[in-house]
Amino acid sequence: MLNSAILNTAILSAFILFILAFIELYLLRKNKFLLDEKNNKIIELNEELLKEKKLLEKANKEKNLLFDPYSDENKYQSIFLGISVDGTLLSLNEYAVNFFGYSSQEELIGKKVIGTIVPLKDSTGQNMCDLLEKIKNNPRLYVDTENENIRKDGKKVWVSWTNRIIYENGIPKQIHAIGFDITPRKMLEENLRKMTMIDPVTGVLNRKKFLEEGAREMKRAVRYDRELSVLLLTIDRFDSLNKDLGIAFSNKVIQVAVTACRNSTRDSDYIGRIGDIEFALILPETPLNGAKIVAERIRNDIMKTNLSIDDENISVTTSISIASRIKDENSIDLLMMRAFSALKENKDRQNNIAIA
């Protein structure tokens, strides 16, 4: 009886071990299958990535060819200049003559490069005489440059230059410059830059850029303990105007508000559209009393503007709040919040106001 129980136990144990071994074998095979499948997927993805890289390299090669002055396709569309170390044009090719809008080489040879084909300062404020000196004195640092140039008709163009210094007995005598036109690329960059900072409807700063400039002006005001004021402006009854008179008229109202703001501010001030019908102004170096004067001027200009539809005059007004930086205030957000609170609180009671 005992032997029979032992035998049954042994058989059961052997069966359990068999089942466990079978399960382990199954899991091993399953894991191997999954691993193989994963490896195959990785190989497939790597092949796709390699194809994409080759396509990208081909696209970059084609793109760079368009701007390569040394390529066969562009060797006759490159600007070649010989410039003395004092900035006098000594030589240039026919393409350069045509590119800069002149009729002959004689019109340019012997002239100073600065003031003819290069402005005294570019649109970024860079002194071009200084750049010429840097190229002469530090040629290794200025082998490749990009700068604004001017045509005979005054049109601005951008050129990418490769500069080489020609020495005689160790003394720099000439700058040889090869350039190619990158104006289309610069125009694209400028359009992209504007898209990230300019409101497309009004042409003023968008909310993001306005707040960036506000933060920068606040830091400056805190550092030098300067005055700083903010105006928030909203158009009264705008929803009703939009509903009753249509979006075309509403857009005219918005433009009127923007024009009034521009007519009443300085070049150093900032105007931004921070909402559908909300505009804000940053007035550096302006105390509260000065900001009040600006606000009243804007409010009166908008109120006096003649807007009509179907020979009917339409009255348009605006409400403006003013907040000025107080001692120890170092956040543009807090300043804007105080202006917003003042505007909301008073618009609940009255329109066509300028409140500090």
CATH class of the largest domain: Alpha Beta
Instruction: Find the count of extended strands (DSSP E, 2+ residues).
Output: 12
**Can you tell me the CATH topology of the largest domain?**
Alpha-Beta Plaits
Based on helices, strands and strand pairing, what is the structural class?
A: alpha+beta
Q: How would you write the strand order of the largest sheet?
A: 2-1-5-4-3
* Separate helix tally: 9
In whole angstroms, the N-to-C terminal distance is: 106 Å
User: Poorly predicted ranges (pLDDT <50, ≥5 residues)?
Assistant: 65-75
CATH second-level architecture of the largest domain: 2-Layer Sandwich
* Number of separate domains: 3
The CATH fourth-level homologous superfamily of the largest domain: Reverse transcriptase/Diguanylate cyclase domain
- Overall outline: flat
User: Which range does the strand content fall in?
Assistant: 15-25%
Order of helices and strands: HEEHHEEEHHEHHEEHEEEHE
Description:
The protein has 356 residues and is an alpha+beta fold. It folds into three domains: 1-67; 74-186, Beta-Lactamase (2-Layer Sandwich); 198-355, 2-Layer Sandwich (Alpha-Beta Plaits). The protein is built from nine helices and twelve strands. It has helices at 2-67, 94-99, 128-137, 183-197, 207-224, 238-245, 247-263, 288-304, 332-347, and strands at residues 79-84, 89-92, 144-150, 156-168, 171-181, 228-235, 270-273, 278-284, 307-309, 312-314, 318-324, 354-355. A five-stranded antiparallel sheet has the order 2-1-5-4-3. The chain has a five-stranded mixed sheet with strand order 7-8-6-11-12, with helices on both faces. Helix 6 (238-245) packs across helix 7 (247-263) and helix 7 packs across helix 8 (288-304). The radius of gyration is 35 Å and the shape is flat. It starts with a helix and ends with a strand. Mean pLDDT is 81; it is low at 65-75.
